[in-house]
Fold each of these.
Amino acid sequence: MGRALPLGLPQARDVDPGARRPYRSRRRRARHRRRDTGQRPPPGHRRGPAPRSPLARRPAPHRGRQPRRDHLSSAWEAARAHERAHGALPSPYDEPYAHVRKAAANFGWDWGPHFVTAGIWRPLRLETYSARLDHVRPLVTLAAGHRTARVTAHVRADAPDGSLVRAELTHPDGSVAARARGAVADGEAVLLLDVTDPALWWPAGLGAQPLYPLRAELLDGETVLDTATVRVGLREVRLDESPDALGARWALHVNGRRVRTRGYNWIPDDTFPSRVTPGRLATRLDQALAGNADLLRVWGGGHFATEEFLTGCDERGLLVWHDFLFACAAYCEDGEMTDLVTREAEQAVSRMAAHPSLALWCGGNETVLGHRHWGWSDQTGDRGWGAAYYLDVLPGVLARLDPTRPYVANSPWSGTIERDPVADSHGPSHLWTPWNEADYAHYRDHDPAYVSEMGWCGPPAWTTLARVLDGETPGPDSPRTRHHLRAIDGMHKLTRGLQPHFPPPAEGADWHWATQLVQARAVAAGTEWLRSRERGAGVVVWQLDDCWPAISWSAVDSAGIEKPLWYAPRHSFAPRLATIQPVRPGPTHDPAGTGGLRLTLVNDTDTDWDTEVHIRRLDLEGRVLASARPRAVCAPDGLTHLVLDPSLATPGDPAAELLVADTGGRRTVWTYRPDRLLRQPAPARRVRLALDEDALRVTVSARSLLRDVCVHPDRLAVALGL
């Protein structure tokens, strides 16, 4: 967990240090509480008026200075000590990160540095009270064809049995939607609030995101002792895992409607999370939304999502897949660790339950994969390696505290611990073979039900990289470039990715642009193929953001600059997509294969897509060799395939021709050969620059075939001295 300290310091876990186990005894009426005030409450969340009842929370009497001393030990040393006491466990890295509940990425990853932090990095305050509300855990269910909604509000309170709690749910238009009262029993009041004709919360692109404020009050008679307010979205989520011809489906349904998700993986946005401001976080979420994403997966090697993150996703309609914090290692299952993991999960699930964006919990990242494929079973023998968490502890916590959200044991996952997790037939898959071993054309070797990781590596913006190279020319011969490329065998893989498509770059600027371009093309090719498949119910690209100036898989670099990769999925993630794909894919040098080509329309919207398609086979000088104007209709949440006539699909000279399809302002292009095998004419263009108030307007006029035209504002600003 990202801000946790070593075992033995439970107040320093990566959750609210003052949060209690939800079913802790209520026998002590007055107690001190250290409270993490860094988690900003969502809009509308507020505490009640200053309490006046004898039972109310009150300031501590001033008795002079009362110092408190906390010892903060080294997380690294604590991890090593736990490793010595319990025995080493396998992981891809030498660092013992699995032996302490701290963000795995702090110990270094293949996109970030080693900074094993320690300390309290958010403000704290000390409160005393004799009665208070701890938290509100609302669970939403829909019924009667979504014409009614029930909010079951579990209100945790430090108050005597029989104390009254009342709750009010407010419609987004300001009217009262429902009220309820209940008594505290064993530290909790459970209130039922029923809503007729609810305004449903929808993911981005499928409807609005109305939020209902839910206010809970703790009463002494009619005196309000404490209040807590959260915002609730009325929606339901389920996971379809029904059998299909290849194995089983794996699709999220929101309010009864399948959502073929388009998303990004989310890593810590900074190596030091205290530097992530609300404004910076809002910018990242806006970049995800503007890039046509509707889901973010919070990866299990980082931190639990903050309130700012979840509230931002609630408001934007970004679904959240949230890993519990396990990543790429075997984990100890001793009693102390199991108890800590259980309490950690209880607190996280309770805190996040109000957020409608939170759609799915996942047990962890690549831990089952590692046990199956990375030789862990030989090293662990009969010793526990974490399976008890993914199969028993975590689903047990969710069954008690939030049974309304689906759970998947791991990512990737194939439905059972016995089945190979890399199988495309079941569950979410990770597609890393193209990047690790082959060309991106090999994404077309796969037909998975869902992809929760796929991606390609590439450098950040030129100025972002230049700032850390200290004058070195970027490229394979630069030591600093290699230092900021943490991927295993990364330079070799970047070079191998270039070879089928481009000649060797002549200089550093060419290398930088070519590797950025291949990254963008690779992810576009993969996402368009996966979205064109009937059974594919989602693709989540690795990764949206960076924590450090790195040559990584990110779409947005550590300076917040959108890489070419961000623009490629903005096209391939469009809710309405036209894509040309091979019927039977061929190799990189002849991707069309032997089965011809087809145009696939993908419609993720709620309305029919009725469009004329203008398809042209052109030579590279721009002459039309064949054309057609078929009309096609694609149903909501549907695919339509148009097999192309041989006059379009079969080139006369594959090295000198291309295929273009235009559909209502959307364009897709297919080349029959990779760039280095095309006989392209010399580029001819005209570029004009003009100052337009406080902006520089760049106009590029093509006089020949120009592909992948890109303007680098950061480099232009440097060149112009701006």
Amino acid sequence: MDAPFLAADLKKADPDRYLLSLFAPRAVRPELWALFSFNAELVKTRSMVSNTQLGLIRLQWWRDEINKIYDGGDGGQIPQLSTLAPLIHRGDLPHEWFEALLYAREFDLEDVAPASAEGLKNYCDFTTTPLNQLMLKIVKEEALIDEIRQISTNFGLCETMRRVPLLLSQRRNLLP
């Protein structure tokens, strides 16, 4: 198991979600670290590429790797994926939620701010709700899945506001 690597990676890439994971039962923490670390990889796509096309290629690579797991693969040497693979094979993590996360991150590749507050709320919903739904499946709190959208959107809004200085330093703006 790659738990120490995943924990360290997440602690650096997304300290808020790392702290959140510490409230989960110990048995599922490595799975949460894998999920959140996977998400951090998607989030950093925009800052790692010089143009939209390269970003789309990177996201497509992640999409292909997830699809391989759904087709029976084991995630290979990628710690995030090899840790999530058993959950996926058991049918615990819906494919469409991974697809939604990947699709939502394509918006990051365009230098276009949402046109309205509603657009920003939609962006926050699309980028956080599928992740939180997957998290709830991992911690076996499926009863909350239908209720997580508002919490996710608000968390995404807070996360976006916290990132405003960084985004502006990169000549990016997510505020309408």
